[in-house]
Amino acid sequence: MEHSNxxxxxxxxxxxxxxxxxxPIYYGPEDFIYSIFNKKAFVYYDINNPSSxxxxxxxxxxxxxxxxxMLNEPILANGNNTIEEYFSxxxxxxxxxxxxxxKDKLNFP
Length: 109
Prior knowledge:
By secondary structure, the protein is mainly alpha-helical. The protein is about 45% helix and about 5% strand. It has 6 helices and 2 strands. The protein is elongated, with a radius of gyration of 16 Å.
């Protein structure tokens, strides 16, 4: 769970779960997280309506095929476009698009 469910606040938590080979159970800014990560690859936990996430976790525990299918979903919402938009701080990743956008915004050469 993120410390806050506001705007664009996303930390390393969901990435750490993906990196460890888990299906993340995530709470944070719902619309923003879906712009980065594939909604079919993790369980979104809504603290105001937890039954949806809890039911999904229960179904995943009872159905190994369903669990494996979710585990094998692509992690990113839009593949290389997501990499370019959110992770390209270096030219070797997504052609450095994000790095250039930040530099332009800060008026750096």
